[in-house]
Design goal:
This protein is α/β, with parallel strands linked by helices and 263 residues long. The protein has 6 helices and 12 strands. Helix 2 links the parallel strand 4 and strand 5. The relative contact order is 0.19. Bound molecules: S-adenosylmethionine (SAM).
């Protein structure tokens, strides 16, 4: 049962199942794993998403919730998200993300694809390679997203400026004509003008959307709704899922062309 709570782009609250509801071009407020489990198999074409990175579960001297250490005073993400603290024991995080990817794989059609963004990190001096999240799924390519520089406070390793976009594909997935000329290293500056603490840059998502042809694009960790903005720009449909009502409202205002930066 879903209850519509706005009249513009609908924000619908998820109450345990999706009952004969066309959720295309809607924002669904709820836990994405539960929502995805309620959606029919092979019902979307493309999934583009970036989950929380579990950044506040840090062994280092970087991000720690509410520590306000001088180094991270200006990093919005240091306090986590509005309604999610981004701080799970690592094995639990990997298990949760694998459950999410399992659902995503079930939801795409045979010619569909998932673009799953995550970021490697060093913990207790050793690389935590997020490939363990995608191991065993039909991974076809890892796109390297190179952001512009930052500051490295750890003398133990070089400044990391890359994130990964894991391209997990249905067996019949193909890029649109000409898109295979792009390389697998994408240099795109991080987004600076979005009040969400960890937004996609629009250019990054435009590159994915314009390289694919599917008409229904899902983002289960939707945040400020960048995936929908790009989908609309390219004349596609979207489905957003986001746990926080604050971010659902931010995404709705952004999609509907209202002032969204002050939500
Ligand atoms: C990295 S951000 C996504 C930002 C988005 N790509 C954008 O451009 O704004 C991850 C989002 O996942 C949301 N989130 C965390 N747990 C969730 C859950 N279980 N279900 C749905 N959304 C969740 C957080 O509130 C946060 O907005």
């Amino acid at each position: 049962m879903l209850a519509a709570v706005t009249e513009k782009t609908p924000i619908v609250q998820f109450n345990n199942h999706l009952d004969h509801f066309d959720f295309t071009n809607c924002i669904i407020q709820g836990d994405c794993l539960a929502v995805m489990r309620s959606m029919p198999s092979k019902s979307v074409d493309v999934i583009i998403t970036s989950p929380p990175y579990n950044l506040l579960n840090s062994s280092g001297n970087g991000l720690k919730k509410n520590t306000h250490v001088g180094k991270w005073v200006n990093a919005a993400i240091k306090d986590g998200y509005r309604e999610y603290d981004d701080n799970m024991p690592y094995p639990e995080y990997v298990e949760w993300q694998r459950e999410c990817v399992t659902e995503m794989v079930r939801l795409i059609r045979d010619d569909g694809a998932i673009f799953y963004n995550n970021k490697n990190r060093v913990q207790r001096g050793l690389l935590q390679d997020r490939r363990e999240i995608v191991a065993g799924f039909p991974l076809r390519q890892i796109i390297t997203w190179k952001r512009s520089g930052a500051i490295n406070f750890n003398a133990g390793y070089f400044l990391p400026v890359t994130e990964q976009i894991y391209m997990i594909c249905g067996p019949a997935f193909k890029l649109v004509k000409g898109a295979n000329k792009l390389t697998d290293v994408w240099e795109v500056k991080q987004e600076m003008k979005n009040p969400h603490p960890a937004p996609f840059p629009e250019d990054l998502i435009d590159r994915i959307v314009s390289s694919t042809s599917g008409s229904i694009i899902l983002d289960p960790f939707a945040g400020s709704g960048t995936t929908a903005v790009s989908a609309i720009k390219h004349d596609r449909n979207f489905i957003l899922i986001e746990q926080s009502m604050v971010y659902c409202e931010m995404a709705r205002k952004r999609i509907d062309g209202e002032d969204w930066r002050n939500v």
